[in-house]
């Protein structure tokens, strides 16, 4: 037996000056790291440095976006972040609308808000569930995903697909929800609010979970702003920035809601922002459901005008894509910004007169949140890594693009 | 040929313990899965034996694990890596064999040796953590090392309170003999000294890595820690089965000390093997209480996340230790008052 | 000592919530092969009426995954066939078809033994694939009663 090859101390690296650190390769094959790698250097139980090694799920989204018709990009970009599919495609649709000077019909605005908020809830449930299992609560995980299962039934009702709606198109939306959707959504929201309350009591307020999150992964307001944290990462540190208020896209300024801000700056604050936003979203959806017109065209006039007359009559029910396929992107550029569950989605589309975008620039919240997250990692304990990771809702496929 | 040996108390004890612990295990694991599933909006095991509510699922899982190939990776210290699980499960289950099941069904025949059996069972149980450290060390993997180091740290948090709560009960009863301990519990020990019971329960949860103290094999950062390289039969013997046997032994001990053991008030049992049914009834009663205690531990999975390591140590030293000292004081006071 | 009070109270509260869920479970499990969830809409297998098709090839061009191949037919026309190994069920092809030659179905339980079987020629697209129902099943859907989701059987 070769003694020198066994033991923890022997695996350590000498940094000089009597300091030794141990490298831990956390991911990409790890139950909680997701498809990314963090090279974690620990000194005893304290994390002294974290080097991210992203790129394992890089899918060349931006380059692929240049190689195809702009309408074909909708199913592609939606795969950036499937839990948040609507908000991603909405941002792309906003960019293309700017470029093509399309207007959005009032009905579509309401439907987009309803589905966009459902998408936000879906992302938050996804993140809360994963965060739950990361701090060891399988109940939190199952509740998050169980609720999300009920939510994707609603998506299937509207769009015909559980997780890949491909539903937002420039100018409006593709299909109108059936009447049953309005009832079902109200039932879901009622149940959601009850269950989220229980989630807080079992996972977050439970002292075991509470002290896993409290004072862990601290990110001050200045640092959050300097490192450009976004979404719950920023709002958990007291930065009251929300793209829905800042850019007033859609009809968010007609509805009553508040930005959820917590001053804690720790994992607990970020989790509470999520929970508060779920409740706010439920409120927004209720308002939008009551006000949404049940009749009316699904796309704005500019897009409607392009449809063949036979399909124009059906535009209250569904929109076919033939009107979009013949449209070229003019020379120019357009940007679209939406607030997704994890933060700000940003699409910058350049047109050059052909059907293919000349360039699509995408900026996603997980990539932006990477640096603040690394900042929050450093100085924590090894066991806090999952608690911090989960609180940012970090999502490697979205980060890598 | 003399068939008398068929009625030997030791043989029956042995067979009963093996069969019963197996059934208890099956029940508790089934309950753990079903209870967690009920809380978590789902159904749990179902398709293996739908009539029994998926009760036999564990057998199917165990069979799957046992026929799968056990892998010993390059770099592991083969001897300990392969024997570690066996040591683990032997220690974990062996401890319960040193405690009588009923006054006569027992392994230690000499009544004068019974007190030593009780102490020895606790010692053997505390050795289980050493088996875990051995496993972690032999796997030669950073995650396993960290898990093993954590296990060693947690031992410091629960060992002293556990022993002190044991001491508190021994002071209260004034004896170490299990038979007398049961006789002296005119009221269940848990009511006589609730503090000691609380400490013992929490320490047991720590010792057997039940939620919320599943720290050494915490999936979040160390990926099942010491067991992260195990598969097949090794996993069954250590992480999947051995840990449950340890829980069984701890619960067995706790039932004896705090829940009145086999004692049923106003029920006197005859001598073995004449009053066989009476003995079996007592054994069943003992095991039933053990099972219920284990079910409580199993239910914690549904309600609890995992506590942080440093908080656990803090909790062990500042909370449990103080509580256990109070429990000893409480026992001494009770003793002086004369209960 | 407020923190000790908080810890004890919140622990008991968490255990109480878990126990309440244990006593009154709110299950939403669907026993899949025996019960099938009824979605109101589901984008699934794509059918083709060859007699309507004008061979405009728009479907092949809009398909985001290049799943559609145009197969030459004896009448000198070309008809689309879908490779279900690539198809993502976005139904863009159905949306673009000017002659309504492609029609949607909600058949989504598609599985094949090897990848060659996934490539459908226009002839195969005419009839919906035969889905082998190994088990008898009932259709179920989830409805909310008093704010709790309930799985109920829908009568066909
Ligand atoms: S559904 Fe979408 S992916 Fe499938 S063949 Fe039609 S256009 Fe292509
Ligand atoms: S779009 Fe319709 S008409 Fe044109 S080739 Fe495809 S199936 Fe035929």
Question: How would you explain this protein's 3D organization?
Answer:
The complex is a heterotrimer of chains A (401), B (339) and C (156). Chain A is α+β, with helices and mostly antiparallel strands. Chain A has a single domain (61-400), classed as Cytochrome-c3 Hydrogenase, chain B. Chain A has helices spanning 61-66, 73-78, 85-100, 106-134, 138-159, 179-204, 207-213, 221-226, 232-235, 243-246, 267-291, 301-306, 309-313, 322-325, 365-377, 385-392, 396-400, and strands at residues 13-16, 19-26, 37-43, 46-53, 168-169, 172-173, 332-339, 344-351, 359-363. In chain A, β1 (13-16) and β2 form a beta hairpin. Chain C starts with a helix and ends with a strand. Chain C has helices at residues 2-23, 58-62, 92-96, 115-118, 122-126; strands spanning 35-37, 46-48, 68-72, 78-82, 102-104, 138-145, 148-153. In chain C, 22% of the residues are buried. In chain C, strands 1-6-7 form a three-stranded mixed β-sheet, with no helix packed on it. Chain C has a two-stranded antiparallel sheet with strand order 2-5. Chain C has 156 residues and is α+β, with helices and mostly antiparallel strands. In chain C, β3 (68-72) and β4 (78-82) form a beta hairpin. At the A-C interface, α2, α5, α6 and α7 of A face α1, α2, α3 and β6 of C. The site of one iron/sulfur cluster (SF4) has 14 residues of chain C, from α3.
């Amino acid at each position: 037996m070769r003694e020198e090859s066994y033991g923890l101390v022997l695996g350590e690296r000498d940094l000089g000056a009597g300091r030794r650190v141990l490298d831990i390769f956390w991911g990409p094959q790890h139950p909680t790291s997701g498809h990314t790698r963090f090279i974690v250097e620990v000194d005893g139980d304290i994390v002294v440095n974290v080097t991210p090694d992203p790129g394992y799920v890089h899918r060349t989204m931006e380059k692929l976006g240049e190689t195809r018709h702009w309408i074909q990009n909708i199913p592609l970009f939606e795969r950036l972040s499937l839990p948040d599919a609507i908000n991603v495609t909405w941002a792309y649709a906003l960019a293309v609308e700017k470029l093509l000077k399309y207007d959005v019909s009032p009905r579509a605005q309401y439907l987009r808000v309803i589905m966009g908020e459902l998408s936000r809830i879906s992302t938050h449930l996804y993140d809360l569930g994963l965060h739950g299992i990361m701090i060891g609560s399988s109940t939190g995980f199952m509740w998050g995903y169980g609720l999300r299962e009920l939510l994707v039934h609603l998506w299937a009702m509207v769009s015909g697909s559980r997780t890949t709606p491909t539903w937002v198109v420039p100018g409006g939306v593709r299909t109108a929800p059936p009447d049953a959707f309005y009832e079902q959504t109200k039932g879901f929201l009622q149940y959601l609010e009850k269950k989220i309350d229980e989630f807080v009591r079992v996972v977050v307020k439970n002292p075991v979970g509470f002290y896993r999150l409290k004072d862990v992964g601290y990110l001050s307001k200045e640092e959050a702003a300097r490192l450009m944290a976004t979404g719950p990462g920023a709002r958990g540190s007291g930065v009251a920035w929300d793209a829905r208020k800042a850019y007033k896209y859609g009809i968010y300024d007609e509805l009553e809601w508040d930005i959820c801000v917590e001053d804690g700056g720790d994992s607990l604050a970020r989790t509470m922002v999520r929970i508060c936003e779920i409740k706010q979203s439920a409120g927004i959806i209720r308002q939008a459901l009551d006000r949404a017109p049940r009749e009316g065209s699904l796309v704005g006039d500019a897009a409607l005008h392009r449809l063949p007359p036979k399909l124009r009559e059906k535009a209250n029910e569904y929109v076919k894509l033939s009107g979009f396929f013949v449209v070229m992107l003019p020379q120019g550029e357009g940007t679209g910004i939406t607030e997704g569950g994890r933060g700000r989605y940003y699409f910058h589309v350049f047109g050059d007169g052909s059907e293919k975008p000349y360039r699509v620039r995408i900026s996603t919240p997980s990539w932006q949140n990477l640096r603040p997250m690394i900042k929050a990692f450093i100085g924590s304990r090894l066991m806090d890594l999952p608690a911090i990771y989960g609180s940012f809702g970090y999502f490697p496929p979205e980060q890598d693009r | 040929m003399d068939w008398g040996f068929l009625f030997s108390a030791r043989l029956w004890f042995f067979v009963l313990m093996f069969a019963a612990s197996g059934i208890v295990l099956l029940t508790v694991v089934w309950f753990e899965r079903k209870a967690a599933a009920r809380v978590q909006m789902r159904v749990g095991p179902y398709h293996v034996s739908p009539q029994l509510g998926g009760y036999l699922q564990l057998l199917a899982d165990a069979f799957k694990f046992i026929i799968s190939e056990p892998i010993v990776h390059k770099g592991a210290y083969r001897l300990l890596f392969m024997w570690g699980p066996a040591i683990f499960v032997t220690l974990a289950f062996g401890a319960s064999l040193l405690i009588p099941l009923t006054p006569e069904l027992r392994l230690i025949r000499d009544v004068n040796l019974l007190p030593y059996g009780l102490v020895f069972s606790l010692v053997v149980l505390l050795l289980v953590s050493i088996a875990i450290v051995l496993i972690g060390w032999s796997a030669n993997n950073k995650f396993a090392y960290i898990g093993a180091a954590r296990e060693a740290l947690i031992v410091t948090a629960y060992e002293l309170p556990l022993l002190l709560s044991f001491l508190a009960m021994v002071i209260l009863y004034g004896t170490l003999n299990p038979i007398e301990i049961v006789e002296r519990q005119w009221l269940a020990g848990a009511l006589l000294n609730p503090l000691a019971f609380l400490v013992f329960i929490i320490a047991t949860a720590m010792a057997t890595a039940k939620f919320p103290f599943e720290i050494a094999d915490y999936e979040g950062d160390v990926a099942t820690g010491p067991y992260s390289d195990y598969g097949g039969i090794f996993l069954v013997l250590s992480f999947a089965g051995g840990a449950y046997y340890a829980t069984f032994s701890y619960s067995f001990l706790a039932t004896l000390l705090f829940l009145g053991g086999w004692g049923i008030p106003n029920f006197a049992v005859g001598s073995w093997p004449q009053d066989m049914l009476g003995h079996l009834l007592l054994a069943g009663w003992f095991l039933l209480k053990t099972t219920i205690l284990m079910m409580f531990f199993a239910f914690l999975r549904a309600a609890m996340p995992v506590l942080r390591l440093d908080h656990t140590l803090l909790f062990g030293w500042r909370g449990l230790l103080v509580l256990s000292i109070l429990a000893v004081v409480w026992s001494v006071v009770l003793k002086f008052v004369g209960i | 000592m407020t923190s000790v009070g908080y810890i004890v109270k919140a622990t008991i509260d968490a255990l109480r919530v878990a126990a309440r869920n244990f006593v009154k479970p709110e299950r939403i499990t669907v026993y899949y092969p025996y019960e099938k969830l009824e979605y109101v809409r589901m984008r699934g297998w794509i059918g083709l009426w060859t007699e309507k098709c004008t061979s405009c090839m728009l479907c092949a061009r809009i398909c985001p995954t290049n799943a559609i191949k145009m197969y030459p037919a004896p009448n000198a026309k070309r008809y689309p066939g879908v490779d279900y190994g690539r198809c993502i069920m976005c139904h863009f092809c159905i949306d673009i078809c000017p002659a309504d030659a492609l029609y949607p179905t909600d058949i989504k339980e598609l599985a094949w033994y090897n990848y060659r079987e996934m490539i459908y020629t226009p002839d195969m697209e005419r009839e919906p694939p035969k889905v082998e129902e190994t088990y008898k099943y009932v259709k179920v859907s989830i409805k909310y009663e008093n704010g709790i989701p309930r799985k109920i059987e829908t009568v066909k």
